[in-house]
Each structure stands twice: as C-alpha cells, then as structure tokens.
Amino acid sequence: MIDKSKLGENVKKSVIALIVIALIIISIFFVQGLKSDKKTVIQIGIYSGNEWGVPQIDVYRIYDEAIKLFEKANPDVIVQYRSGTLMEDYSEWLAQKILNGNEPDVFIVLGEDFDTLSSIGMLQPLDTYMKDDSTFHPEDFYKKGIEAGIYDGYQYAMPFQIVPTFMIVNETLLKDNNLTVPEMDWTLEEFLRMCNELTKDTNQDGINDQFGVVGYGWENTYYAAKGTFEAGDKAIEVYDEEKLRKAIEVSKELYTQNSGQIVPPYAFDQGLVGFKTFSLAEFRAYKPYPYKVKKYSDFTWEPLSFPSVDHNTSIGKLYTVQWGMSSRSKNKDLAWEFIKFMSNDDEVQQMVWDYTYTLPTKISVSNKASAQDELLSNVLDSAFLELVIDQSVIEPTFKKYQKLIESMDIRIKVNIMDDKSMQEIIRSVREEADNILESEN
C-alpha cells in the first residue's frame, strides 16, 4: 500500500530539486551574460607636442577617430587615454606610472627614453608578434621607420609617423646672384662656395644683410661625413674626432662668411637666405592649406637634399613617432593588435596625412596621399621622399645622448665665437663629454 505522505514528501523534494537546478542554470546564464557584457580596457599613453616644432592641427582627433575604428572592429574592447600631457612632461609622467606599476598597455616611446625602457625590460619585444602575424608585413613600411624601433637586435617599437629632413633652396635668390640651383647630388664644397657668394652687404652699410644658409649646424656635416654616435664611457668611444673636426671646420667657415653674425630664422622667410634646413612637417605646414597663403610668397623655393661629402650619400635627420608595449601588460595580444592597427591600417595611416603634418609610415599610403596632393606632388614626389628617408640618420637613443649633444653644440658654438683654435675646441668638447659620460646621473 502506497504511503501518501511519503509520496507527497518525495514529490515536494523533487520539485525543490528542480527549482534549485533551474536557479543554478539561470544563475550560470546570468553570470555568463555579465561576463559577455564586460569589456577589456586597453590603456594607451600619448602626449601633445612634437620634436620638430610645428603647430599641431588637432592633437587628439587622430587618436579619437582611430580608437572608434578599433573599438568597432573589436566590440569587446575599450581604449582609454589621458589627455593634456605635454611632450616635455611626458617622460616624467610615464616614469611615475612605471614606478607605480600602472603604466599604459601601449604608449608612445620618446627617443630619449627608448634605450632605457628597452634595456630595463619595460618594453615588450615585438619580434614574435611580427613573425607570427600573417597580416603584418615589415616590407610595407619605410625601412628606416622600422629600424628606429630596434634595440640590441630586437624590435621594441613600431613606427606610427615619420618626419624626414632636407634643405630648401631660394631659387629666386640664387638666380639673382647668377648661381645655378644645385643638383640632388651636390657636394659640401659646392655648398660652401655658393654660401660664400650669397653672403654680402647689399646696401653698403657695413653689415651683411644677405646670407648663404640658416639652420645648418656642425651635426649636419658630421652626419654627411658618415659620423656616428655610439654608447660608451669615454668621448673617444662615442664619436669620431676626425669627422667632428671636419664638421667644426665647416661651421667655422660659415661663421667667418657671416662675419660673426647669427642669421635669424626669419631671414629666409624674407628672401634673404639661399638655403635653409627644413623638415617635412614644416614643408607641409607652410606650403598648403590650412595656412591658406604660402609663407614664403615673394620667391620661388624648392626642396633639396643635404650636400654630401665627396658625392657620397646625402644624409639628413629622421624624426619618428613610435608605439611600444608594456612588458607587464595583462592584455598583450590586444596591445599588439592596437599597435599593428595604428601602424598598419590604411585608414589610420591616411589620418596621419590628413590630421598631422607628418608622413604615414606605411609606404603605399604615403605615396598615394602625397600624389593626390596637387600642391605638394609637383615638388615633393614619392621618389624624393623615399630618397631622403632612405638616406636619413636615426638619432641615437642611448642614455645621456641628448645631454651630450646639447653640451657639444654649446661648446662648439661658443668656442667658434671666441675664435679658439681647432685643438682647443676639440679638447674642450672632449673634456665636457667625458664629464657627462662619467657622471652617474
């Protein structure tokens, strides 16, 4: 005979068990739903300002629009950044973040910080990511842009923007002085000769009012002579004194040509100087819209490679903006995807051209953008850009380099103005360089 009370109890237990199971299932789905709604946050580090001294169009527009595209392609990701950090404060801000252990997953790496961050293990090597990613092709980028992110044989940063440097020539002034505009393979001897012929007192008041060049320093000659800077503990290990001697000789000659006058930068604007060192960013800012009027409107001017030593390769300085990844990032795969996106995506690289005065680091985008710019394409074609980039020098990034180069520059200029002998200048530079290299800070 069936015990109805027990049956009822069993049914009640079964119902409770089913309810419990249902609640567990609902809870699981609820938790999974919460997890699916939770997005991964990627922090990036950026700054406002630049090394080449040209006003920025809209500092954050390129980042805001690129981030929107990246988040659209990656719906489960949010990219965040802190605005308002100036370039001059950026190193300290980043260093503090690193000390506190909360640095961004991805950040722009200043040249002065690159070697230090790489050597202490704060930057994640990108070689494996580059090798294993079938959508990434290093040959799509300017070679020098890629090289700028290499330290000790490893790739620690990827290029985002690049700015080559070159010279511009006042064609009108040269023709007025019966001088022929030089060819692209012109030499240092030709340069000095033309500067000498251009430098003169045109109104007979005893003071030069027309000059050969502005902005050309000893380092330009040093690089043209194939001089390099290497990390070391002594000056003789860091730079080549014979090539430095050549660089100082040229600077002394130009100073003598100018009768000791310091040529103001605006003198070129006024049509009073034959040659001026220039960056692509300056060229783009001064030549086209949105400045609306050509800054140098009273004469014809064109780009020109730097003079070479004995018809060797012409060499100019190359500025780069590089992305690096924190070695402590908890989202390294996503961090790589963001770095690749900023450097490799055609739409983002087009933004580099549209929203900055720099050059896209991806060759195909750079060539297409410059060719479509009617005003620039006539004088700054892709062949010229590739030439000056290929012949560029990437400034060293070893610790103390910036302090060293600034000290050398001051010593050389002051000693030239004081009419010191070559031996005295070389010794003065060496002594100061040794002091800097031997100091602990």
Structure in words:
- 49% of the residues lie in helices and 14% in strands.
- The protein has 441 residues and is α/β, with parallel strands linked by helices.
- Strands 1, 2, 3, 6, 7, 8, 9, 10, 11 and 12 form a ten-stranded mixed beta sheet that branches.
As for the CATH topology of the largest domain, it is: D-Maltodextrin-Binding Protein, domain 2
Give the % helix: 40-55%
Distance between the termini: 96 Å
**Which geometry do the CA atoms define?**
globular
Main pleated-sheet profile: 10 strands, mixed
What's the pLDDT, averaged over the residues?
Answer: 87
- The amount of beta strand, in percent, is 5-15%
CATH class of the largest domain: Alpha Beta
CATH architecture of the largest domain: 3-Layer(aba) Sandwich
Q: List low-confidence stretches.
A: 31-36, 288-294
| Tally of separate domains | 2
CATH-defined superfamily of the largest domain: Periplasmic binding protein-like II
What distinguishing features does this structure have?
20 helices, D-Maltodextrin-Binding Protein, domain 2, globular, 2 domains, alpha/beta
